[in-house]
Structures are given as structure tokens and as C-alpha cells.
Design goal:
The complex is a heterodimer of chains A (about 300) and B (about 550).
Chain A: H1 2-29, H2 43-52, H3 59-71, H4 86-121, H5 126-140, H6 143-157, H7 169-199, H8 202-209, H9 214-226, H10 228-243, H11 246-251, H12 257-267, H13 270-298
Chain B: H1 2-35, H2 39-49, E1 61-65, H3 81-90, E2 95-97, E3 103-105, E4 108-113, E5 119-124, H4 138-149, H5 168-172, E6 183-187, E7 190-194, H6 202-205, H7 216-219, E8 239-245, E9 249-254, E10 268-272, H8 277-285, E11 291-293, H9 304-309, E12 314-326, H10 336-344, H11 348-356, E13 361-362, H12 385-399, E14 407-412, H13 415-432, E15 436-441, H14 443-451, E16 457-463, H15 470-473, H16 490-501, H17 505-522, E17 525-537, E18 541-542, E19 558-559
Helix pairs in contact in B: 10-12, 16-17
Classes of the chains: A mainly alpha (about 300), B alpha+beta (about 550).
Protein name (chain B): Oligopeptide-binding protein OppA
Membrane topology (chain B): Lipid-anchor
Keywords (chain B): Lipoprotein, Palmitate, Peptide transport, Protein transport, Signal, Transport
């Protein structure tokens, strides 16, 4: 197990190296720079700014300096927000994204799995159609439309919840729902099809034939097996929810990291682009690793450590 | 069987009804607005009529959206409108732009000007203090300005705002020591400023945030004093900063020690950072904001017609111009008659009426009418297709071509820019029979393309830093900088130089008018429209004026009883 973990960590480091390198050079290749603006700076001042931020150094030197800093987990100062370091920006905005993401994932998982299971158990009956209509709507309605509709109905018309911003739990409800809908629908469909598969398999029939209670068959045998595809979807989902919340964060005015990630690219805020990319990559790689470990827990037939590594 | 189909239908109906309900709600609210159009006049006249006689509300809290995190709240480093909207409330320069748009004495109680308009002597007001109790001194100004001009000071993009001061540009380039810059604190109360040449608008500049003082005793030697609220963040304006939650909210409180505190009514200002303009509007409608739109936020384009109809939208002129820049180095725009033909063939009134909808003024001149009033008329007739066709023919003859090449219009990706570009594409195709290609680019790519002169026609805009014609005219004095047209003209440049030494305001204005006339004869760009400020405010918000430069002073604002 330890060897397996070490090996995986090694892979993570290699992937990170490639991600950093590729992002760095792609970013430098993009036209424009962090100090480009509709109001042109006098050349002398632009020169001084480039000097101060080390943009006049040869590219390879900038690259190596950056690698050294990244190893020390130091992402440098932001170009756009004067005096704020990228580490500060990440540590102040990530908690917002994290709370929101956690709520959304909780919603997506619990309701999605529930809907999927209901749909499978009531196959081709009312429950199935109802759940699947919700799922299709959830997948096909873009989150920004849903967000605006939620805002309009619950905040403006019914005045039950605040329109935007992030101050209390009540503020998080609408954005979390808007964020959760698409993965919720996806999970429901995923769960339904794999549950149908499992319900038709021989061991379920055997269990039923043995006279086991319906409930035990469903919970102990069927769901546990049917949930595997959902578990493997979890890794990318976690990261997608955290990075992909740009639209939701913008509409609900939440100072989260997803926003920072996208805006930094438009601003050519080099250090923030690199910082958030590296941060999200680490997050993605680690969550995939965790998912693989969970896989082994859920299904004992899968040996995470592989053959000959007992 | 049937039951299954029915239940499916039912589920669908439920789902659809959610959306229908939402859409339906929208419709009805805009219809309501349409019924009473006559309130429009009431709303706007009531706005100007009040002069402080209304009773004050108990709760003097003002909620406004500033859209984004201010990139820097260091007066010497800030270079954007969001930061300046915050700084204007918490700092104060030697002068402050008053409600009529004129500079009035602020930190300075007295200003003496030498005969040749190049030496200004400021006397610092007695009783002007910093928020930590220190007196504001002339040395604070000297220190703040010289710090910005120091070549080693980081992030001082706006140092060029100080360039009218003698030797400032040279010092920033490192050619001249800082001691030789024309800023001298004679004693604690007297600041003498020597200018490189007469600058009639200098007292407007001293109200600008790059000219704000910083507390030398507190700030000297500290590099990061302005990144957070701390005991080092010392200010001298009508308000102090209570808290700064990055990317979220800034809270300002009234500064009880401010010299003019008795005229400051607002107790608390909540500045929220809500980026999405639709959200901003919803929050305004929900009562979470007292103000939406200019100068710090924006109104969604789609909401403008209905807001205009129900009379709640406020519109004021803004000193800024939206234009299409011609690249005068490439065919066919190297020919002046072709440039004119393209400029004349645009129906500006149509664009303003059906696309931008914010009562912008069609621009047939370079300097906005808020500076040169004559420019309401402009130098040529809007949508003069006949003349345009004539000029086009003449121009093509001069160039010796009988068919125009395909013309490419470049703009940065944006809904509004795209709509205008499409309209102009259509007008040029219709009126001049020319094939027009549209080319939208991401913001940074666009700036790169324009800067390299790799375009034929490009969208651009300019908003004044201060209320003076030179601000628009000097852009085109030489190639480079903000002049993307690659056009320069000796006579034009000479006129501007002449205006710089002219001390008589009327004579100077004549020279500038002459320069503008010359510019319009050469027409290196097609002006489209002059910007306007659009905003909504609750009826009980009083005493806040949006200036043509796109800023506001909350110092004189108050909340009326409601």
C-alpha cells in the first residue's frame, strides 16, 4: 500500500511539472501582457514596471525562478491587485468556493443518488419518468439561466432569500442549488442505469430467491455495487464544481476562486493564472487519488495496490 | 398505460411552469412601467430641484456597488476608476471638484498663482488633520508626489499624471534627481509647485487621486501600508475606511475630525463588489442597494428601455467619446476623402436610438459638448450619404482604384461593440457598396493588434481624466501612446504647442478649436457618439452628482427621510 501511494505521488509530481511548464509557456505565448490597457503607459514607466516584476529577464530565467518558487509553494505577487500575493488571494477566496462546492456536492450526491435509485426501482413507472424529467431538465438548462430564475423567483418575487453576496447560510442556498443541478442530474442518470444493470444481475436474483428482504437486497447489495460509477465521477466533479463555478460566483457576487481563475486570464495576471492553475491541478490530482482509494473500500474486489503488492 | 402518459405530461407541465412563471413576471413588470410615461419628467426635475431642505433620515447609510475589488487603495499606485471611486471619499487633495464640476479649495485654504501661470503657492488649511490626529502638512504632499516620481517606486503607472510639474517626467525617467522636481514645501503650511508650462487645468489635477497626500510620518519606509485596513492606513478625507473585505465589501465611516465634518451627512457607506450588472439591478430593486449604475456600476443594456419608460433612469453627459479609428497607413484609409466618406456614411442617431439607447449624443466632433458646447452640432452632418458617395468616388480616383478592397473592422469581444459593428457594417455596405468583415478579439489580443497597427478600422474610446479639451486633442499630437491611427500632422502639433504657452483662456480656447477643426478636416477617426452616465438612485438619496468624468463625491450626499 505504501509503495502504491508513493508511486502515485510520484506520478502527481510528474504531472504537475508538465502542467506548470505547459501553462507557463502557453501563457507567455498569448498576446498582450499584464500592463496592457486602453490607456497606454508612457514607455519609460512600462519599462520600469516590467523591470520591477522581472518581466525583462530572459524567458528561461523567469521559468526557472518560477519553478523554484513553486517548489516552495510561493506563487508571487499579483500584477493586478497591487500588494496582494497570490497565496493571499487563494487562501482568502478558496474557503468561499469550498463551502459552496461542499454544499453543492452534498446536494448533488444525496438527491442525485436518491432520484437514480427511485428511477431504477420504479423502472418505467411514474417515479422513473418523474426523476428522469428532472434529470433531463437539470442537464439541459444552463446553470446561469437556472441561477437567474432562482434569483428572480426566490429573492425578488418571494423575498425569501437574499439576491446575492455571501454572508450567512441563507446566502449560500440559491448558489448551491444552481451549482448542484447539472451534476445532480448527471448522477441521477448514472445511478439509474448502473442500478438497473445491477438489479438484473444474477446475484440479486439469487438474493431475492433466497428470500432476503427487499430492503436489504436494495441497500446492502444493489446500491453498493451500483454506486461505483458515481464514485469515479466524484473526482473530476469536485474539481469541476470548484473551478467551474465562475458563472455562479459572478451572478451571486461570491468572492470565490473560480472567478479569480477566469478573470486572471483576461487580465493576463501571470502569477494568478499560474497560481490558480497549479492549485487546481493539485486539487484534481489529489482528489483522483482519493477516489481511487475509496474505490477499493467500496468494492473489495478491486485491489488498489495491484498485483503482487500485498 | 394512460396513467403513465398523464404523469409524464404532468411532470413536464410542472417543470415548464417554473420557467413560464419567471418569464411572465418579467413581462408584467415592464408593462406596468409602460403605463405611466409622464413620471419621467417628474423624476428628473425633482432630482435637480432639491438643495438640502429635506429632512434627514435617522439612518444615514448609503449602499452602493463598486463592481470589483479596487486594484489598489494607495493614492500613488491606483490607476483605475474603481480605486479612485473609493479614494475620492477617504482622501482629499489640495482641491476637490464641487457639485458644479469646478475645483474648489479643499486641503488648501488659499491658492496663489504667479502671473505666467507656472508657479502655484498652496497654503494648507488650518485644522486639516489625518485620521490619526497628525496635522496635514506641505511635506506630506511633497513626500507623496515625489514618492510617485521616484523611478524606484513600484506600481506607479499613473506617475504621468504628475508630468505637468517641472522636471517630473525627467525625474521619473531617472535623468534628473528628485530634488530638482518643482515641488517644494517651504514650511509646514506652504507648498510651492512649479510647472513645466502654464497648465490652466492644474487645479483640476490637484483634485485627482495621484495628487493626494499621504502621511509621511506613518507611511515612510513601509511598503505595504495600503493593502489592508490597519493603523498605518491613515487618511484625510470626509470618510475613513472601517473595513475592507477583499473582493467582497468596503465599509466607510464618517470622519468626525474632517475639517468640514459639519457638512458631511452620511454616517456609513457600504461599498459592495458585485460584478454582474443584472445582479446589481436585482439588488437595487430589492432595496439592498440605494444606487445602481454609473459611475461605479453599470445598467444592463436590456433593462435600459423599460427603466427609461418608467422614468427611474437618470442620464447625464459624460466627457468621453466612442470612435472608430482608421489606420491611416493602409489603403484605402491613407486617403482623406475615403476616410471622410466612411465617417459621413454612418447613421449615428440610428445607433444611439436603437442600439446603445442611453441617450448618447451623436458625435460629429472630437471634444465632447460638456467641454466645447458648440460640438452638439459638430463639424459635419450625420448620415450624409450623398456627400459620402461623392467623396468616395473622389477618393478612389485619387488612389487610382475602381473597387474598394474588403474592409475589416476590429473590436474587442463585447455584446454592445458587436451590435454597433454590425450596424456600421450594414451602413457601409448599403451606402458605399463596400464589403465589410467583422473581426472580434479578446481584450488583450485586441490591444496588441491595435498597438501594432495591424488593423484597418478599430473600435476605440476615450474618457477624460480632467475637464479640458487638451485631454482629447493631445492624444493625436504624435504617433504612439493612445494614438492608434498612425496619423500626425505638424500644423496640428504646432497649434497644441502654442496652446500650452497661451495664458489667456479665451485665446487658448480659440487655438484648441482651431486644432480640432484641422483634425476634423483630416479625420483620422470616425467619431460615433459621446458617452452618457446612466444610473438609478432611490428617491431618498440626495446631494450626489455624477461628474462628466465619471466620478462622484459622497461628501455632500445624504439620505432624506422616507
Amino acid at each position: 500500500m505504501a509503495r502504491y501511494l508513493l508511486k502515485r505521488l510520484g506520478f502527481i509530481l510528474v504531472s504537475l511539472f508538465f502542467i506548470v511548464t505547459i501553462t507557463f509557456f502557453l501563457m507567455q505565448a498569448a498576446p498582450g501582457g499584464p500592463f496592457a490597457s486602453e490607456r497606454k503607459l508612457p514607455p519609460v514607466i512600462e519599462q520600469q514596471m516590467n523591470e520591477q516584476y522581472g518581466l525583462n529577464d530572459p524567458l528561461y530565467q523567469q521559468y526557472f525562478d518560477y519553478l523554484v518558487n513553486i517548489v516552495q509553494w510561493d506563487f508571487g505577487p499579483s500584477f493586478k491587485y497591487v500588494g496582494q500575493s497570490v497565496n493571499d488571494i487563494i487562501s482568502r477566496s478558496f474557503p468561499y468556493s469550498l463551502i459552496l462546492g461542499a454544499e453543492a456536492i452534498f446536494l448533488a450526491l444525496s438527491i442525485g443518488i436518491l432520484l437514480g435509485v427511485i428511477a431504477a426501482l420504479k423502472h418505467n413507472k411514474f417515479g422513473d419518468y418523474f426523476a428522469m424529467v428532472i434529470a433531463v431538465l437539470g442537464i439541459s438548462v444552463p446553470s446561469f439561466i437556472l441561477a437567474s430564475v432562482l434569483q428572480y423567483v426566490f429573492a425578488v418575487k418571494l423575498e425569501m432569500l437574499p439576491v446575492a453576496r455571501f454572508e450567512s447560510f441563507a446566502h449560500t442556498i440559491l448558489p448551491a442549488i444552481a451549482l448542484a443541478t447539472t451534476p445532480l442530474a448527471f448522477i441521477a442518470r448514472l445511478m439509474r442505469s448502473s442500478m438497473l444493470d445491477v438489479l438484473n444481475s444474477d446475484y440479486i436474483k439469487t438474493a431475492k430467491a433466497k428470500g432476503l428482504n427487499e430492503r436489504i437486497v436494495t441497500y446492502r447489495h444493489a446500491i453498493r455495487n451500483a454506486i461505483l460509477p458515481v464514485v469515479s465521477y466524484l473526482g473530476p466533479l469536485v474539481v469541476a464544481i470548484l473551478t467551474g463555478s465562475f458563472v455562479i460566483e459572478k451572478i451571486f457576487a461570491i468572492p470565490g476562486l473560480g472567478n479569480e481563475f477566469v478573470v486572471s486570464v483576461t487580465n493576463r495576471d501571470y502569477t494568478v493564472i499560474m497560481g490558480t492553475t497549479v492549485f487546481f491541478s493539485v486539487l484534481l490530482l489529489v482528489s483522483i487519488l482519493i477516489v481511487d482509494l475509496i474505490y477499493g473500500l467500496v468494492d473489495p474486489r478491486i485491489k488498489v495496490a495491484g498485483k503482487g503488492d500485498k | 398505460m394512460n396513467w403513465k402518459k398523464w404523469s409524464l405530461l404532468l411532470a413536464l407541465v410542472f417543470a415548464m411552469s417554473i420557467f413560464l412563471a419567471a418569464c411572465g413576471g418579467d413581462d408584467s413588470s415592464s408593462n406596468e412601467g409602460g403605463d405611466d410615461t409622464d413620471t419621467a419628467e417628474e423624476g428628473s426635475s425633482g432630482e435637480e430641484g432639491d438643495s438640502g431642505e429635506t429632512a434627514l433620515a435617522d439612518d444615514q447609510t448609503f449602499n452602493v456597488n463598486i463592481k470589483t475589488e479596487p486594484p489598489s487603495l494607495h493614492p500613488g499606485k491606483a490607476s483605475d476608476t474603481t480605486s479612485s471611486a473609493v479614494l475620492d471619499q477617504i482622501f482629499e487633495g489640495l482641491t476637490r471638484i464641487n457639485q458644479d464640476g469646478e475645483p474648489e479649495n479643499a486641503m488648501a485654504s488659499d491658492i496663489q498663482t504667479s502671473e505666467d501661470l507656472t508657479t502655484y503657492t498652496f497654503t494648507i488649511r488650518d485644522g486639516a488633520t489625518w485620521s490619526n490626529g497628525d496635522p496635514v502638512t506641505a511635506q506630506d504632499f511633497e513626500y507623496a508626489w515625489k514618492w510617485v516620481l521616484n523611478p524606484d517606486s513600484p506600481d506607479t503607472d499613473y506617475a504621468y499624471q504628475l508630468y505637468p510639474i517641472k522636471n517630473a517626467a525627467e525625474a521619473k525617467a531617472g535623468d534628473v534627481p528628485l530634488d530638482e522636481v518643482g515641488i517644494t514645501a517651504k514650511d509646514d503650511k506652504t507648498l510651492v509647485v512649479e510647472l513645466a508650462q502654464p497648465t490652466p487645468y492644474f487645479l483640476q489635477l490637484t483634485a485627482f487621486h495621484t495628487y493626494y497626500p499621504v502621511n509621511k510620518n506613518v507611511v515612510d519606509g513601509k511598503t505595504e501600508w495600503a493593502t489592508d485596513v490597519s493603523e498605518n492606513y491613515v487618511t484625510n478625507g470626509p470618510f475613513t475606511m472601517e473595513s475592507w473585505a477583499h473582493k467582497d465589501q468596503i465599509v466607510l465611516k464618517k470622519n468626525a475630525d474632517y475639517w468640514d465634518a459639519e457638512n458631511v451627512k452620511l454616517e456609513t457607506i457600504n461599498m459592495y463588489m458585485v460584478e454582474d450588472e443584472n445582479t446589481e439591478l436585482q439588488m437595487y430593486k430589492n432595496g439592498e442597494l440605494d444606487w445602481a449604475g454609473s459611475p461605479t456600476g453599470s445598467i444592463p443594456l436590456a433593462a435600459i428601455p423599460s427603466l427609461k419608460e418608467d422614468g427611474s433612469l437618470n442620464i447625464s453627459p459624460k466627457a468621453g467619446i466612442y470612435y472608430y479609428s482608421f489606420n491611416t497607413e493602409v489603403e484605402p484609409f491613407n486617403n482623406v476623402n475615403i476616410r471622410k466618406a466612411f465617417a459621413y456614411a454612418i447613421n449615428r442617431q440610428g445607433i444611439v436610438d436603437s442600439i446603445t439607447k442611453g441617450e448618447q449624443q451623436p458625435a460629429m466632433a472630437l471634444v465632447p459638448p460638456s467641454i466645447f458646447e458648440e460640438n452638439k452640432e459638430g463639424y459635419f452632418e450625420d448620415n450624409n450619404v450623398e456627400k459620402a458617395k461623392e467623396l468616395l468616388e473622389k477618393g478612389m480616383e485619387e488612389l487610382g482604384i475602381d473597387k474598394l478592397p474588403v474592409v475589416k473592422v476590429t473590436y474587442n469581444t463585447d455584446e454592445g461593440h458587436a451590435a454597433i459593428a454590425q450596424a456600421i457594417q450594414d451602413m457601409w455596405r448599403e451606402n458605399l457598396g463596400v464589403e465589410v468583415e467583422l473581426n472580434n478579439e479578446e481584450w488583450n489580443v485586441f490591444l496588441d493588434t491595435m498597438g501594432e497597427g495591424n488593423y484597418q478600422v478599430g473600435r476605440m474610446g476615450w474618457i477624460a481624466d480632467f475637464n479640458d479639451a487638451i485631454n482629447f486633442l493631445e492624444i493625436f499630437q504624435s504617433v504612439g501612446g493612445n494614438n492608434y491611427t498612425n496619423w500626425e500632422n505638424e500644423e496640428y502639433s504646432a497649434l497644441l504647442e502654442k496652446s500650452r504657452t497661451e495664458t489667456d483662456p479665451d485665446a487658448r480656447r480659440e487655438i484648441l478649436r482651431e486644432a480640432e477643426a484641422l483634425f476634423m478636416e483630416e479625420l483620422p477617426l470616425a467619431p460615433i457618439y459621446f458617452y452618457t452616465n446612466l444610473w438609478l438612485n432611490k428617491d431618498y438619496v440626495k446631494g450626489i452628482e455624477v461628474s462628466p468624468m465619471g466620478s462622484f463625491n459622497l461628501k455632500w450626499g445624504y439620505i432624506a427621510e422616507h
